[in-house]
Each structure stands twice: as C-alpha cells, then as structure tokens.
Amino acid sequence: MFTVTNHLIDQAEFLASPNCSERPKGTKPSLLVIHNISLPPGQYGGGYINQFFQNKLDSSSHPYFKEISELRVSSHLLIERKGSIIQFVSFRMKAWHAGVSQFGDQEECNDFSIGVELEGTDTDFYADNQYESLIALTNCLQENYPDITKERIVGHCDIAPERKTDPGEAFDWSRYKSSLL
Asked: 117 catalytic, yes or no?
C-alpha cells in the first residue's frame, strides 16, 4: 500500500530531477502515462536511469549515452525490475516525459499527466514485482487524484503514436487494468 504526502509517494526514494516545471495554473493531474526505459537499451540496473533523469549521465560510460546525454527529460516515477519505486518530480509539478503529445483534444500531456516509467523494453516481459507495484501505485494515485480514471490511463504510444511505442507489446494491459480498484 502506498500513500502520498505533499505530492510525493511516502514509500518511494526521492531523487530530485531538475527537468520539471510548473503546471499551468489550476491544473491537476488527470492522466496517467505508462512508459518504459532501459539504459543502455535492453540492460537493467546500474543506476543509469537515475543519472539520466538528474542530468548526471556520464556520456563516456557507454556509446549510446553520447546520443542522449544532452537530453533534458524526467518522469515522475520509475518502477525498477525488483518493484522498488523512485520519484524524481513532485506530482504538483510537470515532469518532462511525454514530449509532443495529445490525449483526446488536449495537447501537451505533460501539463496534466503523471508519468510512470517501467524499467524494461517493448519486448521484454515485465517482472511480477513491477506489476504489483504499478497496481498499488495506480490505486494510490487514483485515490489522491480522482480525475485519473481507468479511461485516463494510457501508454506513451497512445498519446504520441507517431513517435513512441512504449510500454510495448510485452506490457499486459489486461492484467494491469483488471487488477485496479
């Protein structure tokens, strides 16, 4: 069970990312966006995602990092393979996770969404621990931000279909959504 205090998950490790900004005045989270990330691609662990979201990624550590080291992105949350959760941005703030995006007739999804990254790829099955954490986390977020309904939980692929494919074919939407309260 997770709880929220001052727009932070109490049970998450908090590692502040500078890659965030104010939400538009009066805007509350009303969309949950599920992503995936692995750094280097297809590899897990190593703390590189944390470094990436904090602008501390050493571009000499891996050839791929040279391509992304100048990007300034973040997500509100990361669920690691073992199910542990790291928070980078307060839910009061806008994390830079969605990029050019649209949900229904609303553009700029970062303005009104919470971004959750799952450590994974489009094609690697996600760990049971990740589903357990994601389900408990989603239930908590829906309690605290009631505008996030089941219909307003989407993949990055749904809001940026020309650019993104995550969380990918390996993500079991049925398992996830059928387990929500």
From this structure: yes
The continuous run of DSSP H or E covering 80 comes out as none
pLDDT (0 to 100) of residue 1: 86
Q: Find how far residue 25's CA is from the centre of its chain.
A: 22
Backbone torsions φ then ψ of 134, nearest 5 degrees? -65, -40
| Residue 32 in tokens | 């949950």
Least Cα distance to 53 among 89, 82, 5 occurs for: 89
- Chain-centroid distance of CA 23 in Å reads 17
Catalytically annotated residue among 70, 107, 117, 162 = 117
Beta strands in the chain, from DSSP E residues, in sequence order:
4-5, 8-9, 13-14, 20-22, 31-37, 77-79, 85-87, 93-95, 102-103, 106-107, 113-119, 153-155
How far is it, in rounded angstroms, from Cα 178 to Cα 181?
A: 8
Q: What is the pLDDT of residues 7-24, one digit of tens each?
A: 999 999 999 999 999 999
Give the C-alpha separation, 2 to 46, whole Å: 25
Q: Which residues of the chain have pLDDT under 50?
A: none
d(CA 91, CA 145): 10
